[in-house]
Design brief:
7-stranded parallel sheet; 22 helices; 22 strands
Length: 690
Amino acid sequence: MSTRLDQLIPSASFLEEAFLRWVLTPAVEPGIVPRVHSQHPVTVNERSYRLDYLIAGNSLQLAIELDGFAFHSDRAAFTYDRLRQNDLAATGLTVLRFSYDAVRLDTRRCVAQLQAMLHRDAGLSPFVVATPHVEVPDMAGDPMRSADPPRYGPAASGTAYFDGIRALVDRGPLRACQDEALGALANYYASGGRHAATVMAVGAGKTALCVAAALSFTKRRALVVTPGSVIRGTFAKALDPGVPGNVLYGLAGGPLLPGARPPHTVVLDADDTQISQVTREQLLAADVLVTNFHALGTGDKPGDLLAKLAPNEIDFIVVDEAHIAASDSYQRLFDHFRHARTLLMSACFKRLDGKPIDADVVYRYKLVDSVADGSAKNLRVRRFAPDAAATVYEAIWPDGRREEIVGREALLAALGDERKMARITARSDASIHQVMAVTRACLDEQAKLLAPVKPRVLFSAMGEAHAHQIARIAEAHGIPCGTLHHSMSASAISATRRRFESDSGDLQGIVQLRMLGQGYDFPPITVVVPVRPYGSFGEFYQFVGRGVRVLRHASVPTDEQYMDVVCHAELGLEEHLEAMCVDNDLDPAVLLDAPLIDAASLSDGTEGSDGERGDESADTGPAGVDAFVLYERGRVEQRVVHDLERVEARRAERGMQLMAQRYAVYAQSSTTPMPFEQFVEYVRRLTGGQ
């Protein structure tokens, strides 16, 4: 028998090792090893790819691509995969693809196909074995196992916990989008990929995906990094088996780990577990570490996490809210654990600095998908024009000197100066009064729809004085409103939040300064009002997302709930609205060309002067819309861009994708599969049309 090439050539996953052992080993002589290059980099038109294996001949450059599944998780992944293959072909590479099930179930054919290609090159042909000895592969039937670590070599050494737990993870309780994302990650990691990203809209269940991924793809130890204490607490709860609603045993569909013990989790930075006090031995005893990025340190001090752990002691890193992952702390983290697989998760598809996420986006679940699945509210944008061409803002310095700030660019430049922002106010408050007129109308309409739930509004301001100015005007418009900013004491912050979040609380609005941001979910927020410009799309998108999650306890069905975004034209948020529309299949040209609201024409909500709604068709009111962005003019005209038909089409599209996946599994297990259309009809009859 030939020398086993899986012991001579590196592999980053069990699928790569399986290809080397059961396909390449019987196909060729060991002398070919110097011509086989693992994770070979290729750059095409500024796009960088890594081939699972490159077999270099005299004239033939053979790219071996390995797929964990015989089908793809969604259309975007399928399309990306084809475009990638076209790019590789354009460089002169010949691409040969093998799936996990092809290696497992049709090994002899895989060997024959590989040998046929190698025979075409004079430099490779001499290595081809004349009579290959093909073994039956020792491979599990679950293609998720393709992403397991290889059984041999340095990457194979795991811990007893993850070695025994990976195959026990039950994907049944996961939502469809979580399961699709997990499958896409398995595909990616199985073929040697290391830096993956998933873009998951509000309501998609990123936390459960993170936990499932850590259990499925970790070899030795996982590290979960969050941007702050709120999200850190969410993951601490998710991984604590004794807390109601934990992910391990508390998912709605059943336990993720039935009959298995939970991972030993250490949550750092909590009041009783400061990282400087945690020993290296305690860290090494953990299966999962949860911390926030502020505590990572530089590695220069003995108490830093990066100083306590060696590079090979973390092999799977999850970063939540990854749009901020360009910061130095994260880059040091990735550099230190440079061989670890990474999973970056965010609801936003751009980093805070405006650049794309620095990872391979393997799965995308858009806001329109979340709305179609009943996890997110509908979206309406009400954009109006203030009377003034540009509001004049005024910053008062401690010595009494006054400085004028006019226009969006000047405001954005000033946002980096905390001294200016603390004391900035609008010299004329006419624009804020106009904002409040629209906001009050939105709250009144939401109150009628959601009764008995009290709708809340979240404002964003530029500085403390500006926040108090907004709150004062909100109160004048009948909106009880408080402020939140970092100069407040912890007890004052907690008390204000209770007044806002409690059903019996007296506040209907909060004006906040970057306080209730990433990870803050409070579904009764049904109106969000940015009273400041945003230089970063990510920051704007995160603010808007605070009120997107649907109310599960409301009397109104989820597909009739919506959230109002109120903003005015002078703040220059159009580019962010356009980016949000493009990502959700909206037409930004139609959206941004719609007439602006004349706020002065607002009287009492959206009703006409005769008490009836304006001249609208039946499918443009809130109860008949599943996802839309809306601009209104006066009290009557509505323009619906993203309507019921679009969301229904997306819902049907996702259903057909899932059906195609089920068919692929069925077709692989049947020697005479029925046609796809017949299969669809059969399944629908079997499930009562579901």
